[in-house]
Amino acid sequence: MKEVSTIGLDLAKNVFQVHGVDGVGGVVIRRALRRSQVLVWFAKLPRCLVGMEACATAHYWARELEKLGHEVRLIAPAYAKAYVRRNKNDPADAAAICEAVGRPSMRFVAIKSTAQQAAAGIHRVRDLLMKQHTMLRNQLRGLMAEFGLVAAKGQRGLSELIAILVDPEDRRLPSPLREGLVAIVETLRGIDRKLEAIDRQLVQAGRENATYRHLITAPGYGPILASAMVAMVVDPGAFRRGDDFAAALGPCSSQGQALVPRQEGTGGKTWLGPISKRGNGYLRRLLVNGATAVLKSKRAKEDPWLAKLLTSKPRKLVAVALANKMARIGWALMTRQEDFRGSLAVA
């Protein structure tokens, strides 16, 4: 065990797989560990390089192993998969991680601190509540439409349907269904209150962060998007330029691709495959929402670049192209730690 230089650790809920090699690549450890044994076992090892896939609980274990003096690197699962030689199982995964972590050209995921992980987690809670809110609204509209009660889209139409439900004189809905839909309305109002509390919490936490204050000065960046960038982009300096950062998130380019497509090629020929969903879908969605808000503003036509695109491209395509530009602007502000300076401030 004193000869171990590199370890591949395959994470799990209860049983972890360890694969360790010495300085010349010879296998010296291949064993399984129970969850309660992991920290005790690694505490007995001399300092070594530990590789893990950037999956669930990876940041927690990375922080704990760093406290024991080990050097920990997180690898995207897709990168480690290429080193699996044949059958897919826990020992093979650990061996693949061990081999991948030592590659000089490998790219790694930055380890989040406890505060950064908590900030990213509250955004996931918000995203889940938003999904539940949409599901409940759609269910309410669908069930009432079965009885001929249809309203316009948006909050105004929803308010009209709620007014019908709470009106004791309106008998167009049978009694059992009415009580059930009233319960949905009460749940919706409860989710609204929780979302408002989370938004206030995010804004308050963002005001205490310098990077948040820089991002909020850029066009299209609101409190939610700025706080999400701060929480989820741990090390913007890991990207060489803004284009690489935008491609990692997934917004489109100004040439009109809806998302970064999958590329395949051989013999000098390249094919663009189906639309890829790689990247951070939450940040991508917030960027597009922010870009849409910019396009709806009365000053959007004052930007020559936007005005030119709007005359020749669909509005939604322009919004996604602007989201790509916003991602590159955000990368520049985070790496340089300065406020946005633009010749034209589009609110």
Description:
The protein has about 350 residues and is α/β, with parallel strands linked by helices. It contains 13 helices and eight strands. Strands 3-2-1-4-5-6 form a six-stranded mixed sheet. Strands 7-8 form a two-stranded antiparallel sheet. Strand 4, helix 2 and strand 5 form a beta-alpha-beta unit. The longest helix is centred in the middle third of the chain and has 33 residues. The protein is globular.
In short, what is this structure?
The protein has 347 residues and is α/β, with parallel strands linked by helices. Helix content is 52%, strand content 13%.
Unreliable runs: 252-259
Structural class: alpha/beta
Helix content: 40-55%
Mean pLDDT: 88
| Number of DSSP E strands | 8
For the termini, the CA-CA separation is 60 Å
Q: How do the strands of the widest beta sheet line up side by side? A: 3-2-1-4-5-6
- Please tell me how large the radius of gyration is: 25 Å
Task: Give the key terms.
globular; alpha/beta; 6-stranded mixed sheet; two-stranded antiparallel ribbon; 347 residues
